[in-house]
Structure formats: structure tokens, C-alpha cells
Automatic annotation (TrEMBL):
<dbReference type="GO" id="GO:0016020">
    <property type="term" value="C:membrane"/>
</dbReference>
<keyword id="KW-1133">Transmembrane helix</keyword>
<dbReference type="GO" id="GO:0015171">
    <property type="term" value="F:amino acid transmembrane transporter activity"/>
</dbReference>
<feature type="transmembrane region" description="Helical">
    <location>
        <begin position="384"/>
        <end position="405"/>
    </location>
</feature>
<feature type="transmembrane region" description="Helical">
    <location>
        <begin position="42"/>
        <end position="66"/>
    </location>
</feature>
<feature type="transmembrane region" description="Helical">
    <location>
        <begin position="166"/>
        <end position="186"/>
    </location>
</feature>
<feature type="transmembrane region" description="Helical">
    <location>
        <begin position="479"/>
        <end position="498"/>
    </location>
</feature>
<feature type="transmembrane region" description="Helical">
    <location>
        <begin position="87"/>
        <end position="111"/>
    </location>
</feature>
<feature type="transmembrane region" description="Helical">
    <location>
        <begin position="332"/>
        <end position="351"/>
    </location>
</feature>
<keyword id="KW-0472">Membrane</keyword>
<feature type="transmembrane region" description="Helical">
    <location>
        <begin position="140"/>
        <end position="159"/>
    </location>
</feature>
<feature type="transmembrane region" description="Helical">
    <location>
        <begin position="233"/>
        <end position="254"/>
    </location>
</feature>
<protein>
    <recommendedName>
        <fullName>Amino acid permease/ SLC12A domain-containing protein</fullName>
    </recommendedName>
</protein>
<dbReference type="InterPro" id="IPR004841">
    <property type="entry name" value="AA-permease/SLC12A_dom"/>
</dbReference>
<feature type="transmembrane region" description="Helical">
    <location>
        <begin position="275"/>
        <end position="294"/>
    </location>
</feature>
<feature type="domain" description="Amino acid permease/ SLC12A">
    <location>
        <begin position="11"/>
        <end position="444"/>
    </location>
</feature>
<dbReference type="Pfam" id="PF00324">
    <property type="entry name" value="AA_permease"/>
</dbReference>
Amino acid sequence: DRIRQELREKHVNMIGFSTMLGIGLVLSSGKAIFMAGPGGAVAAYIVTGTIMASALACLGEMTALFPVRGAIFEFSRRFIDKSVGFAVGWLSWFSWIIICTAEILAITQLFRFEFKPSYLEEQGYPHERVEWETRKTNPAVWVGIFWLLILLFNLLPVRQYGRVEYFFGVLKMIFAVGVIVFNTIINARELVHKARFWTWEYPYRSSKSKFVAIANPDGSPRVTYTGSLGGLAAFWSTMTVTIFSMIGMDIVLYTAPENKDLRRDENIKMATRKLSLRVILLYVLVVFTVGLNVPSDDDNLRDFSLLGVSGGQNSALIIASIRERVKAIPHLFNAFFIFMAFSCGINCLYASSRALHALASIKDVWPDAEIFQRMRARLERTRMGVPMNAVLASWTIVSLSFLSVRSSQAQILGRMASVAVVSNLLVYGLNCVAYLIFYRQINAAARGDLDDELNLTPETRSHYDRDAPRYPYHTHFQWLRAVFALVGCFVFLLFHGWRTLIPPISADDFVASYIAI
């Protein structure tokens, strides 16, 4: 049995969209507002989104022309070097495993939902308590439940899987639009504040010129930058936070071998374009509207940790409803956040299993020892079009999520997110290099410079013409976008963990920031 082509265009679009709407939006957006202010947070999402969209366009063009298994590493193997391609393949598989684990860890954080009574009283909230009894439950219980559920959804035949994810994606889209409308309405009703842009005005400002790089255990500043340097440090650190929200756009490429309408409907072409625009637009609108109702100095937004990720009570989306004294919404939002993280976890396991299955199809990736070749052969097998063994192998590694039983789970979650970010930046950067080589070679073939080497005729040469109608997908000045994405990924890789280098150096945080390199 082989992988079956049973996904339609709508399924691919929603798989990509559903993957992008997870904890990065609902939990990290508040930290971004705290670090850079509402205006700085919006700008950071635009910049990081543009970098990721540029990298995705490079991969989209090559995948539309060559819809192969393991597209994410195949092009690095073809155009750079075999060893580089294999390294990219393992990095992509590993990063999806880590993201899936992070989503499950985030779920355990969300079940520990609790606002301090003093904070509710300060905001004039009508209820004395906003909390869930589930905060007392052992996190291992929630890890076990959602770990199993994620597996069950990934064992579905691909057609049913696509339908389920389409439904989940629609729900998430409705929720995102609802959040935008909700925050616009509560800002306009003038219940608490009369000014529309009060969070952008004095004493808050739209962006910050003061940044606390390192804080003491009690929350007091230890290393602070002010002025232009402080503004730059705040904006850059915010981009390193928002980049986690933007990784994962490439999941649409993992669906290429299972695309039913790849050639007829230009599935990859439309998916990459639509996904980039939808995600960037929704992220910017959500952060902008939420930033109208939550000041950057809110006590529940305060987070000086290097790599920590907090729970629902620290989400700007929920804080907005608390500050505007809206009943029931905090509980509803937190419950939906759990669903969002769960849905993302399903897609992350899907992507990791497809990456592992593609790696299993290449003998050179694996050691020559018989035991590894037997393992490879088993991972390559499918049942009902689903690579069951690859799913189970990846799912087993996701058991790392049981680390959440430790008290420092927020810090563990942040470090896992950092490892995933660095791994993905390496993957995207190397694929941008592969695209630039591909771009040079395909233009040389179209000009006829490679006729003798490739035995091309004038008729076959036309297949390499990027401006020809039959060419499946290209964008203007794509080589320039590739350079832009490559430089962006490279700079992020170098300075992603700059705060870990400030004395006293945290060895654990430094390793989490740079171990993937």
C-alpha cells in the first residue's frame, strides 16, 4: 500500500491555516505587547510574517514544479548537497516533534487557569474568582489524554483526516474573526476608557524605549536598556517571540504527495499564497485590536523570563475581557485555547510522520547496519494510505510532553519552543539557499546554456521558462525575496538568544537557544 492522493485544495488550505492558529497567537501575543508595546508588537508580527512568507514562496515554487515526498529536505539534497538535505530532513522531523510536544505542554498550562482575586478586584470584575478546578489535577493526566487523542486522529485515513481538519480550521477562523470583532466592540462601548487608542497614548505609548533584558527572581530589573538601544532591544526581542507564531507555514508542502488536485487546481500555489496572506492579516488584526484594550504594563502581562510561556490568565485575549468586565468570555476563550493547541498538535504529528516516512524512502539517510535498514523498511510501509509506523514512531517521541509533571513546565515549554524556532530557521534558511541555486539553474536551462549537459531541445527547454503559461507557480522578484528570507533567518539564528549571553549566563537557556545549530 502507498500514500494515497485524497486531499483536496480546501483540505490543504485549512490544514495549513489550522496549524498556524495555536499557542503562538493566544499566549505569545501578550508577551509581545508587554515587551514592545501594541504598535511594536504589530510591527514585529508584520516583519516576521513577511520573512516566513518569503521563505514559503521559495518552497512553494519548487514544490509546485516537483511535488515529491519530503519536499522540505529534497531540494536541499538536490541543489546543495546530499548530506545537507539529510540534515534538513532530520531537523524538520525533530522540530515538528518538539512543536507537538510544546502544544501538549501548553494544554497543561491552560488547565491551570486562575486569576488572583486582588487582580480581579483591581480591574472591577464582577466576580471574585475566575479559576478552574482543573488547576489542581496532575498535569500528567492531561498529557496522557491529549497524547492519545492526537494519535487517534492521525490514524484516520487521509480523506477523513482532511475533512476533520477542514472543520477544525473553519472553527478557528470563526474564532479569530470573533476575537477581532469582540475587541473592536468592547473598545467602542467606552465602559472603562473614553479614548479609543488609550493604550497607545501617554503614559503607555505605542512602542517602548525601555527594555528589561534580565530580571531578578523577585521581578525587579537587573539589566535595563533605555533610549534608542532600549527600543531596538525591545523590538528585536519581540520578533524572537513572534517568530514562533509564524513557523509552520510549510506544512502545506508535506501534503504534496497526498494532493488529489495538485496539477489541476494549482493546489500548492494557492495554498502558499492564501496561507501567508490569511495568517499575517489575522495575526496583525488580532494583536492590533487586543492591544487597544490591554496596556503593555498590565500585571498579568509582565514576563521577564528568557524562554518562558505562561497560561491563559496571562493571555492578552483573556485579559481584555477581564479589564472590560465581560462575564463568561474568559472561561470560553481558555477552553477554545485548549482546542486550538490540541488541533495544532494533531497537525504537528501529521507533518512529523510524513517527514519521517519520506526519510524512510531514502536508503542513504540510514546507517548500513541491518537493524537500521529493517527499521527504515518498516517506517516506509503504509496501511490504508497512512504511514502507520512513522506515525507511531513520531508519536512515541512526543511522550517528552510528560516532562510537564515538573514544576518548571513553563520554562521547559519556552525552551522547547526556542529549539523548534532555531531548527525551523535552519530549515528555511537552507531551503532559501537551495532556491537561489535552483533559480540560477532553471534560468540557465531556459536560456539554452545547459542544452548539451541536459540534452534539451527547444521544445523541452520551454518547460524551464518561468514566464511560460505552463509553469505551475512563480512570483515576481522571487530571488530577491529568497535573499531577504535568507538574511532574516541568518540574523535570527545568530541573535535569537542574545539575552542568554548577558551575565550571569544561564547555561540551560543558552543551550536551548543554540543547540540546533
